[in-house]
Design the sequence.
């Protein structure tokens, strides 16, 4: 005979049609509910992981993985420090920078902006700015030429185009009492970039580090922008690098600078997970109902098995096996369906858009116009384990109830 006995009898009950059409229907609904919930969870979390990766890529296209800035606002010998930093383990690139709040005007239009002074020769080592966003326009940011590159939204607000002259005003502290005195200079628009994020496209302007330092009246860079081989190692490596390069340096990584974005995504992922877990929970209630009806229908069988010497824990095992089989099958189908959807969502969505003639993410409204997907093995494993555990818990109470059936009581009325 197939061993163990509990699993053999439990599998027979799963395949049995003697319990009636209604019980079989509820069993199918339970299995389908678990599968649907697991598939939906895997797909939704993969899409949200994809959006998180897309957002991180866009944020870091113009932002460094980490920055080191001087506590007193001035960074002595920034070029030498950048060379030392670039040679440190795990660091893929380092470049000095200077940021100033500025007011840009063009004709009758004006807008506030963050004016970032960069070293074009080094900037490509810490961002994708020269490769993907400016198409080589960094070469125009030569020192002394007063050239500037604007974000697309900022250029639109100013009504400026490449070749136009704009006026840049930065406030500087002058005099003993620290009175703010504006410094003004005309810059020529060398190019326009677009990242696809409001924080970059609407407020950021890039110019040569020497030109910005001259305008602001400073001696040079105020910090270093760093890029690491592993972006997730940035918090740890940046803090260690700040200590290694000398006192007076403060490290700030991308997780701090963009904490609001990623906190919002984590909250959304958590809420979506909890909501979709309710689908699995409802399916587990169906499993409870199914097993309760099976226990009532199999009271005679339980009594005979007990009479033949099956222990109460063996009866528990019989019905646990039945519930586990339903949960295992539903979870397996859900994982297979969820992976199929998550891995092909970037092809499925455009197909649905063509068939039904609608746009999920309209380019006139959203920066991101495609639905990305990133499947993470940890998420899939956690979802499958949670779904399986819920079905196991759902089967526990009916199984314990079956173990309490008294053989004499059950056989008396048969």
Sequence:
């Amino acid at each position: 005979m197939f061993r163990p006995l509990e699993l053999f009898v439990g599998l027979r009950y799963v395949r049995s049609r003697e319990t009636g059409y209604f019980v079989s229907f509820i069993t199918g609904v339970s299995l389908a509910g678990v599968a649907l919930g697991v598939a939906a969870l895997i797909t939704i979390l993969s899409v949200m992981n994809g959006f998180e990766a897309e957002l991180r890529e866009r944020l870091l296209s113009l932002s460094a993985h980490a920055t080191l800035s001087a506590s007193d606002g001035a960074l002595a010998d920034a070029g030498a420090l950048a060379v030392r930093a670039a040679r440190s383990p795990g660091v893929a690139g380092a470049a000095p920078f200077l940021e100033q709040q500025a007011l840009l005007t063009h004709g009758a239009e004006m807008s506030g902006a963050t004016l970032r002074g960069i070293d074009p020769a080094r900037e490509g080592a810490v961002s994708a700015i020269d490769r993907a966003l400016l198409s080589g326009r960094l070469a125009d940011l030569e020192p002394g030429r007063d050239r500037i590159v604007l974000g697309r939204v900022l250029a639109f607000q100013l009504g400026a185009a490449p070749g136009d002259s704009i006026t840049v005003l930065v406030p500087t502290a002058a005099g003993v009492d620290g009175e703010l005195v504006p410094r003004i200079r005309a810059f020529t628009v060398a190019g326009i970039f677009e990242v696809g994020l409001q924080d970059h496209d609407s407020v950021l302007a890039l110019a040569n580090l020497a030109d910005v330092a001259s305008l602001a009246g400073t001696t040079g860079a105020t910090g270093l922008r760093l890029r690491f081989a592993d972006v997730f190692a940035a918090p740890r490596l940046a803090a260690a690098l700040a200590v290694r390069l000398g006192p007076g340096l403060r490290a700030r990584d991308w997780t701090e600078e963009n904490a609001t974005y990623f906190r919002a995504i984590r909250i959304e992922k958590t809420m979506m997970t909890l909501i979709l877990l309710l689908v699995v929970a409802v399916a587990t209630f169906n499993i409870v109902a199914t097993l309760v009806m099976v226990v009532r229908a199999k009271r005679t069988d339980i009594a005979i098995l007990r009479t033949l010497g099956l222990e109460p824990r063996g009866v528990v095992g019989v019905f646990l096996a039945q519930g586990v089989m339903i949960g295992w099958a539903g979870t397996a189908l859900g994982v297979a369906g969820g992976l199929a959807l998550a891995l092909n969502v970037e092809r499925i969505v455009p197909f649905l858009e063509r068939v039904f003639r609608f746009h999920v993410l309209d380019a006139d409204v959203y920066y991101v116009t495609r639905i990305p997907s990133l499947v993470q093995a940890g998420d899939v494993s956690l979802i499958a384990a949670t779904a399986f555990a819920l079905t196991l818990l759902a089967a526990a109470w009916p199984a314990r109830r079956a173990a309490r059936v008294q053989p004499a009581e059950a056989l008396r009325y048969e």
